[in-house]
Structures
1.
Amino acid sequence: MVNISHTFGAISSDLKNNTGNIESSINYLNSSLQTLKEQFGRMNEFNEETLEQIGHRLSDNQEILREYVEQFDTIKNGLSEIFGEVENGLTKYSNTVKNGINEYLSGFTNQLSTASGRLAGSIDALNDFFEEVSDKLEGS
Protein backbone atom coordinates (compact mmCIF):
# COMPACT_ATOMS: atom_id res chain seq x y z
CA MET A 1 0.00 0.00 0.00
CA VAL A 2 2.84 2.23 0.57
CA ASN A 3 3.72 1.70 -3.02
CA ILE A 4 0.28 2.68 -4.14
CA SER A 5 0.35 5.68 -1.90
CA HIS A 6 3.74 6.64 -3.24
CA THR A 7 2.61 6.10 -6.86
CA PHE A 8 -0.56 7.99 -6.17
CA GLY A 9 1.54 10.85 -4.67
CA ALA A 10 3.82 10.85 -7.72
CA ILE A 11 0.82 10.90 -10.08
CA SER A 12 -0.74 13.66 -7.99
CA SER A 13 2.50 15.66 -8.13
CA ASP A 14 2.78 15.14 -11.91
CA LEU A 15 -0.83 16.21 -12.32
CA LYS A 16 -0.15 19.31 -10.25
CA ASN A 17 2.92 20.16 -12.36
CA ASN A 18 1.05 19.49 -15.59
CA THR A 19 -1.85 21.60 -14.39
CA GLY A 20 0.60 24.43 -13.67
CA ASN A 21 2.12 24.00 -17.12
CA ILE A 22 -1.34 24.02 -18.69
CA GLU A 23 -2.23 27.18 -16.71
CA SER A 24 1.01 28.84 -17.88
CA SER A 25 0.25 27.82 -21.46
CA ILE A 26 -3.29 29.17 -21.14
CA ASN A 27 -1.98 32.43 -19.66
CA TYR A 28 0.61 32.74 -22.44
CA LEU A 29 -2.04 31.95 -25.06
CA ASN A 30 -4.41 34.51 -23.53
CA SER A 31 -1.62 37.10 -23.49
CA SER A 32 -0.77 36.32 -27.13
CA LEU A 33 -4.44 36.55 -28.11
CA GLN A 34 -4.75 39.88 -26.27
CA THR A 35 -1.65 41.23 -28.08
CA LEU A 36 -3.00 39.98 -31.40
CA LYS A 37 -6.38 41.57 -30.65
CA GLU A 38 -4.68 44.91 -29.85
CA GLN A 39 -2.61 44.74 -33.05
CA PHE A 40 -5.71 43.96 -35.11
CA GLY A 41 -7.47 46.89 -33.41
CA ARG A 42 -4.62 49.26 -34.28
CA MET A 43 -4.50 47.90 -37.82
CA ASN A 44 -8.27 48.34 -38.14
CA GLU A 45 -8.01 51.96 -36.91
CA PHE A 46 -5.16 52.60 -39.35
CA ASN A 47 -7.19 51.11 -42.21
CA GLU A 48 -10.23 53.19 -41.27
CA GLU A 49 -8.11 56.36 -41.15
CA THR A 50 -6.51 55.47 -44.48
CA LEU A 51 -9.89 54.81 -46.08
CA GLU A 52 -11.22 58.09 -44.68
CA GLN A 53 -8.20 59.96 -46.09
CA ILE A 54 -8.68 58.27 -49.46
CA GLY A 55 -12.35 59.27 -49.37
CA HIS A 56 -11.41 62.88 -48.64
CA ARG A 57 -8.82 62.87 -51.43
CA LEU A 58 -11.38 61.45 -53.85
CA SER A 59 -13.86 64.14 -52.84
CA ASP A 60 -11.16 66.80 -53.24
CA ASN A 61 -10.19 65.41 -56.64
CA GLN A 62 -13.83 65.35 -57.75
CA GLU A 63 -14.20 68.99 -56.69
CA ILE A 64 -11.03 69.96 -58.55
CA LEU A 65 -12.21 68.06 -61.62
CA ARG A 66 -15.60 69.79 -61.44
CA GLU A 67 -13.85 73.18 -61.21
CA TYR A 68 -11.70 72.33 -64.23
CA VAL A 69 -14.79 71.32 -66.20
CA GLU A 70 -16.48 74.62 -65.25
CA GLN A 71 -13.37 76.59 -66.18
CA PHE A 72 -13.07 74.73 -69.47
CA ASP A 73 -16.73 75.49 -70.23
CA THR A 74 -16.10 79.16 -69.38
CA ILE A 75 -13.06 79.23 -71.66
CA LYS A 76 -14.93 77.35 -74.39
CA ASN A 77 -17.88 79.75 -74.19
CA GLY A 78 -15.54 82.75 -74.09
CA LEU A 79 -13.63 81.50 -77.11
CA SER A 80 -16.88 80.85 -78.95
CA GLU A 81 -17.91 84.44 -78.30
CA ILE A 82 -14.48 85.75 -79.28
CA PHE A 83 -14.39 83.73 -82.50
CA GLY A 84 -17.96 84.80 -83.23
CA GLU A 85 -16.93 88.45 -82.82
CA VAL A 86 -13.80 87.88 -84.93
CA GLU A 87 -15.90 86.28 -87.66
CA ASN A 88 -18.42 89.11 -87.47
CA GLY A 89 -15.58 91.67 -87.62
CA LEU A 90 -13.97 89.93 -90.58
CA THR A 91 -17.31 89.80 -92.39
CA LYS A 92 -17.86 93.52 -91.78
CA TYR A 93 -14.29 94.27 -92.87
CA SER A 94 -14.71 92.14 -95.99
CA ASN A 95 -17.97 93.89 -96.86
CA THR A 96 -16.46 97.34 -96.22
CA VAL A 97 -13.41 96.55 -98.36
CA LYS A 98 -15.62 95.06 -101.10
CA ASN A 99 -17.91 98.08 -101.08
CA GLY A 100 -14.93 100.46 -101.06
CA ILE A 101 -13.30 98.68 -103.97
CA ASN A 102 -16.61 98.58 -105.87
CA GLU A 103 -17.12 102.32 -105.29
CA TYR A 104 -13.55 103.06 -106.34
CA LEU A 105 -13.80 100.89 -109.46
CA SER A 106 -17.21 102.38 -110.29
CA GLY A 107 -15.81 105.91 -109.99
CA PHE A 108 -12.74 104.92 -111.98
CA THR A 109 -14.96 103.38 -114.67
CA ASN A 110 -17.08 106.53 -114.82
CA GLN A 111 -14.02 108.74 -115.08
CA LEU A 112 -12.52 106.46 -117.71
CA SER A 113 -15.80 106.53 -119.66
CA THR A 114 -15.91 110.32 -119.41
CA ALA A 115 -12.27 110.59 -120.46
CA SER A 116 -12.87 108.15 -123.31
CA GLY A 117 -15.91 110.15 -124.47
CA ARG A 118 -13.98 113.42 -124.33
CA LEU A 119 -11.04 111.84 -126.12
CA ALA A 120 -13.41 110.57 -128.85
CA GLY A 121 -14.88 114.08 -129.08
CA SER A 122 -11.39 115.55 -129.35
CA ILE A 123 -10.43 113.03 -132.02
CA ASP A 124 -13.61 113.87 -133.98
CA ALA A 125 -12.84 117.58 -133.62
CA LEU A 126 -9.26 117.01 -134.79
CA ASN A 127 -10.49 114.93 -137.73
CA ASP A 128 -12.89 117.73 -138.68
CA PHE A 129 -10.10 120.26 -138.29
CA PHE A 130 -7.71 118.20 -140.45
CA GLU A 131 -10.43 117.76 -143.07
CA GLU A 132 -10.98 121.51 -143.16
CA VAL A 133 -7.27 122.14 -143.36
CA SER A 134 -6.95 119.51 -146.06
CA ASP A 135 -9.93 120.98 -147.95
CA LYS A 136 -8.45 124.48 -147.73
CA LEU A 137 -5.06 123.26 -148.81
CA GLU A 138 -6.55 121.42 -151.74
CA GLY A 139 -8.79 124.35 -152.62
CA SER A 140 -6.08 126.90 -152.64
2.
Amino acid sequence: MSNAMLKCSVALCFACAASLSAAFPFFWPAKGDIAPWAPTPTDHVTLSISDTYLECGLCSEGYPASSQVSRDSNVITVTVTWAPTGAGTPPSCVGCTFQVDLGALPIGQYTVNYLHVPNLPEPWLLSIGFTV
Protein backbone atom coordinates (compact mmCIF):
# COMPACT_ATOMS: atom_id res chain seq x y z
CA MET A 1 0.00 0.00 0.00
CA SER A 2 1.37 3.38 -0.91
CA ASN A 3 2.02 6.11 1.63
CA ALA A 4 -0.75 8.32 0.16
CA MET A 5 -3.30 5.49 0.39
CA LEU A 6 -2.29 4.80 3.97
CA LYS A 7 -2.74 8.46 4.95
CA CYS A 8 -6.10 8.55 3.18
CA SER A 9 -7.24 5.38 5.01
CA VAL A 10 -6.23 6.79 8.39
CA ALA A 11 -8.03 10.09 7.69
CA LEU A 12 -11.13 8.18 6.62
CA CYS A 13 -11.09 6.13 9.83
CA PHE A 14 -10.91 9.28 11.97
CA ALA A 15 -13.72 10.92 9.99
CA CYS A 16 -15.93 7.84 10.38
CA ALA A 17 -15.22 7.59 14.12
CA ALA A 18 -16.11 11.26 14.63
CA SER A 19 -19.36 10.96 12.70
CA LEU A 20 -20.32 7.78 14.58
CA SER A 21 -19.78 9.41 17.98
CA ALA A 22 -21.94 12.37 16.91
CA ALA A 23 -24.66 10.13 15.46
CA PHE A 24 -24.60 7.63 18.34
CA PRO A 25 -23.51 9.49 21.50
CA PHE A 26 -22.57 7.36 24.48
CA PHE A 27 -25.09 7.01 27.26
CA TRP A 28 -24.07 7.68 30.82
CA PRO A 29 -25.73 5.33 33.27
CA ALA A 30 -25.82 6.62 36.81
CA LYS A 31 -23.34 4.96 39.15
CA GLY A 32 -23.24 5.12 42.91
CA ASP A 33 -21.55 3.89 46.03
CA ILE A 34 -21.95 4.08 49.78
CA ALA A 35 -19.15 5.30 52.04
CA PRO A 36 -17.94 3.96 54.32
CA TRP A 37 -18.48 0.59 52.70
CA ALA A 38 -19.25 -1.04 56.08
CA PRO A 39 -20.92 1.73 58.12
CA THR A 40 -21.51 1.51 61.86
CA PRO A 41 -24.31 3.32 63.74
CA THR A 42 -21.89 6.14 64.63
CA ASP A 43 -20.78 6.77 61.01
CA HIS A 44 -22.35 9.33 58.74
CA VAL A 45 -23.29 7.39 55.61
CA THR A 46 -22.57 9.19 52.33
CA LEU A 47 -24.06 8.33 48.96
CA SER A 48 -21.69 9.18 46.11
CA ILE A 49 -23.34 9.52 42.67
CA SER A 50 -21.88 9.89 39.18
CA ASP A 51 -24.51 11.02 36.69
CA THR A 52 -25.25 13.55 33.96
CA TYR A 53 -28.11 15.94 33.15
CA LEU A 54 -29.49 13.90 30.27
CA GLU A 55 -29.08 10.23 29.46
CA CYS A 56 -26.57 11.20 26.78
CA GLY A 57 -23.17 12.23 28.05
CA LEU A 58 -22.21 14.14 24.90
CA CYS A 59 -25.43 16.18 24.83
CA SER A 60 -25.56 17.01 28.54
CA GLU A 61 -25.82 20.69 29.41
CA GLY A 62 -26.86 20.72 33.04
CA TYR A 63 -25.88 20.34 36.67
CA PRO A 64 -27.35 18.92 39.90
CA ALA A 65 -29.26 21.91 41.31
CA SER A 66 -30.69 20.46 44.52
CA SER A 67 -31.17 17.24 46.43
CA GLN A 68 -33.77 15.96 48.86
CA VAL A 69 -33.43 12.92 51.12
CA SER A 70 -36.48 11.13 52.48
CA ARG A 71 -36.69 7.97 54.55
CA ASP A 72 -39.56 5.54 54.93
CA SER A 73 -38.48 2.85 57.38
CA ASN A 74 -35.38 1.25 55.80
CA VAL A 75 -35.89 2.71 52.31
CA ILE A 76 -34.06 5.97 51.66
CA THR A 77 -34.93 7.98 48.56
CA VAL A 78 -32.51 10.59 47.26
CA THR A 79 -34.15 12.90 44.73
CA VAL A 80 -31.76 15.11 42.77
CA THR A 81 -33.24 17.87 40.64
CA TRP A 82 -31.12 18.67 37.62
CA ALA A 83 -31.22 22.04 35.88
CA PRO A 84 -30.06 23.17 32.46
CA THR A 85 -26.95 25.32 32.34
CA GLY A 86 -27.52 28.96 31.50
CA ALA A 87 -26.34 32.46 32.30
CA GLY A 88 -25.46 32.80 35.98
CA THR A 89 -25.58 29.06 36.73
CA PRO A 90 -22.80 26.63 37.59
CA PRO A 91 -21.06 25.12 34.56
CA SER A 92 -22.48 21.96 33.06
CA CYS A 93 -20.76 18.70 33.77
CA VAL A 94 -20.53 15.41 31.98
CA GLY A 95 -20.25 12.65 34.51
CA CYS A 96 -20.86 14.86 37.52
CA THR A 97 -19.85 13.27 40.78
CA PHE A 98 -21.47 14.55 43.95
CA GLN A 99 -22.15 13.32 47.48
CA VAL A 100 -25.31 13.29 49.57
CA ASP A 101 -25.04 12.85 53.35
CA LEU A 102 -27.57 10.28 54.56
CA GLY A 103 -26.61 10.80 58.20
CA ALA A 104 -25.99 8.26 60.93
CA LEU A 105 -28.33 5.28 60.67
CA PRO A 106 -29.32 2.69 63.29
CA ILE A 107 -28.42 -0.96 62.81
CA GLY A 108 -30.41 -2.54 59.99
CA GLN A 109 -30.56 -3.30 56.28
CA TYR A 110 -31.20 -0.33 53.98
CA THR A 111 -32.02 0.36 50.37
CA VAL A 112 -31.12 3.70 48.81
CA ASN A 113 -32.98 4.69 45.65
CA TYR A 114 -31.57 7.51 43.52
CA LEU A 115 -34.20 9.51 41.62
CA HIS A 116 -33.12 11.86 38.81
CA VAL A 117 -35.65 14.59 37.87
CA PRO A 118 -36.67 15.83 35.34
CA ASN A 119 -36.01 14.83 31.70
CA LEU A 120 -35.65 11.08 31.90
CA PRO A 121 -38.23 8.52 30.85
CA GLU A 122 -37.09 6.21 33.66
CA PRO A 123 -36.29 8.44 36.66
CA TRP A 124 -35.23 5.59 38.99
CA LEU A 125 -31.63 5.16 37.93
CA LEU A 126 -29.99 3.43 40.82
CA SER A 127 -30.78 1.28 43.84
CA ILE A 128 -28.13 0.29 46.38
CA GLY A 129 -28.55 -2.05 49.34
CA PHE A 130 -26.30 -1.98 52.41
CA THR A 131 -26.20 -3.00 56.06
CA VAL A 132 -25.30 -0.91 59.10
3.
Amino acid sequence: MAGYRGIRVFYYIRLTGWLTVLFLVGKLFFWLIKGFFELVAMLMDCLTSRPQPPIIRFVSDEERGSLVRVGTVDNLRSATTLQRSSVPVVKDISLPVPEIASSLLPASTNSFLSWRKQWDDLMEYSGPEVPDARERIEQLLHLWRISPPDGWQRGVDPQLLGKRYRRGDFQNPQAGEHTIEFEILQRHFEEVDFLGYHLVDGINAVPLSRDPQGGRRGNVEADMVLLLEKNGQYVMAVCEVKATANNAWFAAVENLRQLRLFSVSESARSLFHQRNQQLTLPSTLPFIACVIAPEEFYCHVGQKNNARLEVIRLLDRFAIMTGYTALLTVLDSSHKRVKMLE
Protein backbone atom coordinates (compact mmCIF):
# COMPACT_ATOMS: atom_id res chain seq x y z
CA MET A 1 0.00 0.00 0.00
CA ALA A 2 2.81 2.33 0.94
CA GLY A 3 4.49 1.47 -2.34
CA TYR A 4 1.32 2.30 -4.26
CA ARG A 5 1.10 5.71 -2.52
CA GLY A 6 4.73 6.35 -3.34
CA ILE A 7 4.07 5.66 -7.00
CA ARG A 8 1.08 8.04 -7.01
CA VAL A 9 3.15 10.78 -5.35
CA PHE A 10 5.92 10.19 -7.86
CA TYR A 11 3.60 10.52 -10.85
CA TYR A 12 1.87 13.50 -9.25
CA ILE A 13 5.19 15.31 -8.82
CA ARG A 14 6.20 14.35 -12.35
CA LEU A 15 2.91 15.61 -13.80
CA THR A 16 3.16 18.84 -11.81
CA GLY A 17 6.66 19.35 -13.15
CA TRP A 18 5.54 18.85 -16.74
CA LEU A 19 2.61 21.21 -16.27
CA THR A 20 4.94 23.83 -14.80
CA VAL A 21 7.30 23.44 -17.74
CA LEU A 22 4.43 23.72 -20.23
CA PHE A 23 3.16 26.82 -18.45
CA LEU A 24 6.57 28.47 -18.55
CA VAL A 25 7.08 27.52 -22.20
CA GLY A 26 3.61 28.83 -23.06
CA LYS A 27 4.32 32.06 -21.22
CA LEU A 28 7.64 32.45 -23.02
CA PHE A 29 5.96 31.75 -26.34
CA PHE A 30 3.29 34.36 -25.57
CA TRP A 31 5.89 37.04 -24.84
CA LEU A 32 7.84 36.12 -27.95
CA ILE A 33 4.73 36.42 -30.11
CA LYS A 34 3.77 39.72 -28.44
CA GLY A 35 7.28 41.10 -28.95
CA PHE A 36 7.22 40.03 -32.58
CA PHE A 37 3.96 41.85 -33.30
CA GLU A 38 5.16 44.95 -31.45
CA LEU A 39 8.32 44.92 -33.56
CA VAL A 40 6.25 44.57 -36.74
CA ALA A 41 4.03 47.47 -35.62
CA MET A 42 7.10 49.64 -34.98
CA LEU A 43 8.52 48.82 -38.41
CA MET A 44 5.19 49.61 -40.07
CA ASP A 45 5.04 52.94 -38.25
CA CYS A 46 8.53 53.78 -39.47
CA LEU A 47 7.72 52.77 -43.05
CA THR A 48 4.41 54.58 -43.17
CA SER A 49 5.33 57.68 -41.14
CA ARG A 50 4.57 60.80 -43.11
CA PRO A 51 7.56 62.87 -44.26
CA GLN A 52 7.42 66.59 -43.63
CA PRO A 53 5.15 67.93 -46.36
CA PRO A 54 6.16 71.04 -48.29
CA ILE A 55 4.12 74.18 -47.86
CA ILE A 56 5.32 76.38 -50.71
CA ARG A 57 5.52 75.57 -54.37
CA PHE A 58 7.87 77.47 -56.70
CA VAL A 59 7.41 77.30 -60.45
CA SER A 60 9.35 79.38 -62.95
CA ASP A 61 9.03 79.51 -66.71
CA GLU A 62 12.49 77.97 -67.12
CA GLU A 63 11.79 75.16 -64.69
CA ARG A 64 8.34 74.18 -65.84
CA GLY A 65 8.78 70.77 -67.43
CA SER A 66 10.78 67.94 -65.93
CA LEU A 67 11.84 69.77 -62.76
CA VAL A 68 10.17 72.19 -60.40
CA ARG A 69 11.38 73.89 -57.27
CA VAL A 70 9.59 73.21 -54.06
CA GLY A 71 10.01 75.38 -50.99
CA THR A 72 9.43 73.82 -47.62
CA VAL A 73 8.81 75.60 -44.36
CA ASP A 74 10.58 74.56 -41.17
CA ASN A 75 8.57 73.51 -38.14
CA LEU A 76 5.62 72.27 -40.16
CA ARG A 77 4.47 69.27 -38.19
CA SER A 78 1.81 68.14 -40.67
CA ALA A 79 -0.48 69.51 -43.35
CA THR A 80 -2.96 70.44 -40.64
CA THR A 81 -0.75 71.67 -37.79
CA LEU A 82 1.51 74.74 -37.89
CA GLN A 83 3.77 76.05 -35.16
CA ARG A 84 2.66 79.64 -35.30
CA SER A 85 5.40 81.01 -33.09
CA SER A 86 8.25 80.07 -35.43
CA VAL A 87 9.53 81.97 -38.45
CA PRO A 88 9.40 79.89 -41.64
CA VAL A 89 12.69 79.37 -43.44
CA VAL A 90 12.40 78.52 -47.13
CA LYS A 91 14.51 75.70 -48.46
CA ASP A 92 14.81 74.68 -52.09
CA ILE A 93 14.81 71.13 -53.39
CA SER A 94 14.03 69.61 -56.77
CA LEU A 95 11.44 66.97 -57.49
CA PRO A 96 10.40 65.32 -60.74
CA VAL A 97 6.78 66.03 -61.58
CA PRO A 98 5.34 63.52 -64.04
CA GLU A 99 2.56 64.84 -66.22
CA ILE A 100 0.27 63.14 -68.68
CA ALA A 101 -0.09 65.07 -71.91
CA SER A 102 -3.73 65.69 -72.80
CA SER A 103 -3.01 64.46 -76.34
CA LEU A 104 -2.41 60.98 -74.91
CA LEU A 105 -5.82 60.82 -73.27
CA PRO A 106 -8.87 59.13 -74.78
CA ALA A 107 -10.86 61.40 -77.06
CA SER A 108 -13.66 61.56 -74.48
CA THR A 109 -11.33 63.34 -72.03
CA ASN A 110 -9.24 65.27 -74.51
CA SER A 111 -11.09 68.57 -74.01
CA PHE A 112 -11.07 71.15 -71.28
CA LEU A 113 -14.76 70.71 -70.53
CA SER A 114 -14.28 66.96 -70.07
CA TRP A 115 -11.25 67.56 -67.87
CA ARG A 116 -13.24 70.03 -65.79
CA LYS A 117 -16.18 67.65 -65.48
CA GLN A 118 -13.94 64.92 -64.08
CA TRP A 119 -13.15 67.21 -61.17
CA ASP A 120 -16.89 67.85 -60.70
CA ASP A 121 -17.59 64.12 -60.62
CA LEU A 122 -14.95 63.53 -57.93
CA MET A 123 -16.01 66.42 -55.70
CA GLU A 124 -19.76 65.76 -55.68
CA TYR A 125 -21.54 63.00 -53.77
CA SER A 126 -24.60 62.40 -51.62
CA GLY A 127 -24.91 60.62 -48.30
CA PRO A 128 -23.11 60.99 -44.97
CA GLU A 129 -19.77 59.47 -46.08
CA VAL A 130 -17.41 60.16 -48.97
CA PRO A 131 -18.02 57.07 -51.12
CA ASP A 132 -14.93 55.10 -52.14
CA ALA A 133 -12.73 57.76 -50.57
CA ARG A 134 -9.42 55.97 -51.15
CA GLU A 135 -10.22 55.38 -54.80
CA ARG A 136 -11.30 58.99 -55.24
CA ILE A 137 -8.03 60.20 -53.72
CA GLU A 138 -6.02 58.15 -56.22
CA GLN A 139 -8.20 59.36 -59.09
CA LEU A 140 -7.64 62.96 -58.01
CA LEU A 141 -3.88 62.46 -57.90
CA HIS A 142 -4.04 60.95 -61.38
CA LEU A 143 -6.21 63.79 -62.64
CA TRP A 144 -3.81 66.36 -61.18
CA ARG A 145 -1.02 64.95 -63.37
CA ILE A 146 -3.06 65.47 -66.52
CA SER A 147 -2.18 68.73 -68.22
CA PRO A 148 -5.34 70.79 -68.74
CA PRO A 149 -6.24 70.55 -72.43
CA ASP A 150 -5.74 73.75 -74.43
CA GLY A 151 -8.37 76.43 -74.92
CA TRP A 152 -8.92 77.52 -71.30
CA GLN A 153 -6.10 80.05 -70.97
CA ARG A 154 -6.91 83.71 -70.48
CA GLY A 155 -4.94 86.91 -70.07
CA VAL A 156 -5.16 89.35 -67.19
CA ASP A 157 -8.58 91.00 -67.17
CA PRO A 158 -8.22 94.78 -66.63
CA GLN A 159 -10.95 94.48 -64.00
CA LEU A 160 -8.50 92.50 -61.87
CA LEU A 161 -6.21 95.51 -61.62
CA GLY A 162 -8.72 97.58 -59.66
CA LYS A 163 -10.29 97.34 -56.21
CA ARG A 164 -9.80 94.33 -53.97
CA TYR A 165 -13.47 93.49 -53.35
CA ARG A 166 -15.02 93.12 -56.82
CA ARG A 167 -18.50 91.82 -56.11
CA GLY A 168 -21.54 94.01 -56.67
CA ASP A 169 -22.67 93.96 -53.01
CA PHE A 170 -19.81 96.11 -51.70
CA GLN A 171 -22.13 98.35 -49.68
CA ASN A 172 -23.93 95.43 -48.06
CA PRO A 173 -22.20 92.07 -48.62
CA GLN A 174 -24.40 88.98 -48.61
CA ALA A 175 -24.23 86.87 -45.47
CA GLY A 176 -21.92 83.91 -45.73
CA GLU A 177 -19.06 83.65 -48.18
CA HIS A 178 -19.26 87.24 -49.40
CA THR A 179 -19.09 88.51 -45.82
CA ILE A 180 -15.97 86.41 -45.16
CA GLU A 181 -14.31 87.80 -48.27
CA PHE A 182 -15.30 91.35 -47.30
CA GLU A 183 -13.89 90.98 -43.78
CA ILE A 184 -10.54 89.82 -45.14
CA LEU A 185 -10.24 92.15 -48.13
CA GLN A 186 -11.86 95.30 -46.72
CA ARG A 187 -13.10 95.52 -43.15
CA HIS A 188 -10.04 94.04 -41.42
CA PHE A 189 -7.50 94.05 -44.25
CA GLU A 190 -4.78 95.91 -42.32
CA GLU A 191 -5.23 93.81 -39.19
CA VAL A 192 -5.73 90.25 -40.44
CA ASP A 193 -3.14 87.72 -39.28
CA PHE A 194 -3.10 85.11 -42.05
CA LEU A 195 -1.20 82.05 -40.82
CA GLY A 196 1.34 84.39 -39.26
CA TYR A 197 1.69 86.52 -42.41
CA HIS A 198 0.22 89.93 -43.04
CA LEU A 199 -1.80 90.86 -46.11
CA VAL A 200 -0.10 92.96 -48.79
CA ASP A 201 -2.78 92.69 -51.46
CA GLY A 202 -5.68 90.50 -52.47
CA ILE A 203 -8.63 90.28 -54.78
CA ASN A 204 -11.77 88.16 -55.01
CA ALA A 205 -13.75 86.56 -57.83
CA VAL A 206 -10.60 85.75 -59.85
CA PRO A 207 -11.37 83.89 -63.10
CA LEU A 208 -8.76 81.23 -63.85
CA SER A 209 -10.17 79.88 -67.10
CA ARG A 210 -12.55 80.63 -69.93
CA ASP A 211 -15.01 78.36 -71.65
CA PRO A 212 -13.41 77.29 -74.96
CA GLN A 213 -16.91 77.33 -76.48
CA GLY A 214 -17.65 80.85 -75.29
CA GLY A 215 -20.19 79.96 -72.60
CA ARG A 216 -19.86 79.62 -68.83
CA ARG A 217 -19.66 75.82 -68.40
CA GLY A 218 -15.86 75.89 -68.58
CA ASN A 219 -15.34 78.70 -66.10
CA VAL A 220 -13.23 78.09 -63.00
CA GLU A 221 -12.96 80.93 -60.48
CA ALA A 222 -10.95 81.35 -57.28
CA ASP A 223 -12.94 83.04 -54.52
CA MET A 224 -9.82 84.96 -53.48
CA VAL A 225 -6.14 85.19 -54.34
CA LEU A 226 -4.01 86.84 -51.65
CA LEU A 227 -0.48 88.18 -51.49
CA LEU A 228 1.08 87.55 -48.07
CA GLU A 229 4.37 88.74 -46.59
CA LYS A 230 6.48 87.87 -43.57
CA ASN A 231 10.05 88.98 -42.94
CA GLY A 232 10.48 89.94 -46.57
CA GLN A 233 9.17 86.63 -47.91
CA TYR A 234 6.14 86.78 -50.18
CA VAL A 235 3.62 83.98 -50.68
CA MET A 236 0.43 83.81 -52.74
CA ALA A 237 -2.63 81.96 -51.45
CA VAL A 238 -5.34 80.62 -53.78
CA CYS A 239 -8.44 80.49 -51.61
CA GLU A 240 -11.79 78.72 -51.68
CA VAL A 241 -14.19 80.36 -49.22
CA LYS A 242 -17.03 78.44 -47.57
CA ALA A 243 -19.69 79.34 -45.01
CA THR A 244 -22.37 76.64 -44.93
CA ALA A 245 -22.75 75.24 -48.46
CA ASN A 246 -21.41 71.79 -49.39
CA ASN A 247 -18.65 70.25 -47.26
CA ALA A 248 -14.87 70.21 -46.82
CA TRP A 249 -14.37 67.50 -49.47
CA PHE A 250 -16.21 69.55 -52.08
CA ALA A 251 -14.30 72.69 -51.09
CA ALA A 252 -10.87 71.01 -51.06
CA VAL A 253 -11.30 69.35 -54.46
CA GLU A 254 -12.52 72.63 -55.94
CA ASN A 255 -9.48 74.33 -54.41
CA LEU A 256 -7.13 71.74 -55.93
CA ARG A 257 -8.65 72.34 -59.36
CA GLN A 258 -8.08 76.07 -58.91
CA LEU A 259 -4.50 75.42 -57.84
CA ARG A 260 -3.88 73.19 -60.87
CA LEU A 261 -4.92 75.92 -63.28
CA PHE A 262 -3.14 78.61 -61.27
CA SER A 263 0.10 76.61 -61.38
CA VAL A 264 0.22 76.68 -65.20
CA SER A 265 -1.34 80.11 -65.81
CA GLU A 266 1.32 82.75 -66.40
CA SER A 267 -1.25 85.55 -66.23
CA ALA A 268 -2.60 84.36 -62.87
CA ARG A 269 0.85 83.92 -61.33
CA SER A 270 1.91 87.40 -62.47
CA LEU A 271 -1.28 89.11 -61.25
CA PHE A 272 0.29 90.76 -58.20
CA HIS A 273 3.31 91.90 -60.19
CA GLN A 274 0.91 93.91 -62.33
CA ARG A 275 -1.19 95.09 -59.39
CA ASN A 276 1.82 96.12 -57.31
CA GLN A 277 4.41 97.51 -59.69
CA GLN A 278 5.75 99.73 -56.91
CA LEU A 279 6.91 96.62 -55.02
CA THR A 280 10.09 94.76 -55.80
CA LEU A 281 8.61 91.30 -55.98
CA PRO A 282 10.62 88.20 -56.92
CA SER A 283 10.03 87.17 -60.51
CA THR A 284 8.60 83.89 -59.25
CA LEU A 285 6.33 83.88 -56.20
CA PRO A 286 5.60 80.70 -54.22
CA PHE A 287 1.97 79.80 -53.70
CA ILE A 288 -0.28 77.58 -51.64
CA ALA A 289 -3.96 76.69 -51.68
CA CYS A 290 -6.31 76.96 -48.73
CA VAL A 291 -9.95 76.53 -47.88
CA ILE A 292 -11.20 79.29 -45.56
CA ALA A 293 -14.34 78.66 -43.51
CA PRO A 294 -15.80 79.08 -40.02
CA GLU A 295 -14.78 76.28 -37.67
CA GLU A 296 -18.32 74.90 -37.46
CA PHE A 297 -18.26 74.31 -41.23
CA TYR A 298 -15.78 71.49 -40.70
CA CYS A 299 -17.16 70.01 -37.50
CA HIS A 300 -20.94 69.90 -37.93
CA VAL A 301 -22.18 66.41 -37.10
CA GLY A 302 -22.80 64.23 -40.13
CA GLN A 303 -21.54 64.74 -43.66
CA LYS A 304 -19.38 67.79 -42.90
CA ASN A 305 -17.48 66.17 -40.04
CA ASN A 306 -17.08 62.91 -41.96
CA ALA A 307 -15.78 64.79 -45.00
CA ARG A 308 -13.20 66.62 -42.90
CA LEU A 309 -11.52 63.38 -41.87
CA GLU A 310 -11.21 62.21 -45.49
CA VAL A 311 -9.94 65.62 -46.64
CA ILE A 312 -7.09 65.47 -44.13
CA ARG A 313 -6.03 62.16 -45.71
CA LEU A 314 -6.41 63.61 -49.19
CA LEU A 315 -4.31 66.71 -48.52
CA ASP A 316 -1.60 64.82 -46.67
CA ARG A 317 -1.22 62.40 -49.58
CA PHE A 318 -1.50 65.23 -52.09
CA ALA A 319 1.38 67.12 -50.44
CA ILE A 320 3.58 64.02 -50.41
CA MET A 321 2.84 62.97 -54.00
CA THR A 322 2.81 66.34 -55.77
CA GLY A 323 4.96 68.73 -53.75
CA TYR A 324 2.14 71.23 -53.39
CA THR A 325 0.37 72.16 -50.18
CA ALA A 326 -3.34 72.73 -49.75
CA LEU A 327 -4.61 73.60 -46.28
CA LEU A 328 -7.84 73.72 -44.30
CA THR A 329 -8.02 77.02 -42.43
CA VAL A 330 -10.45 78.74 -40.10
CA LEU A 331 -11.48 82.39 -40.07
CA ASP A 332 -11.51 83.58 -36.46
CA SER A 333 -13.39 86.86 -36.92
CA SER A 334 -13.23 87.82 -33.25
CA HIS A 335 -9.42 87.79 -33.34
CA LYS A 336 -9.15 88.91 -36.97
CA ARG A 337 -7.02 86.02 -38.05
CA VAL A 338 -6.98 83.00 -40.33
CA LYS A 339 -5.51 79.99 -38.54
CA MET A 340 -4.94 76.33 -39.25
CA LEU A 341 -7.81 73.94 -38.60
CA GLU A 342 -6.86 71.94 -35.50
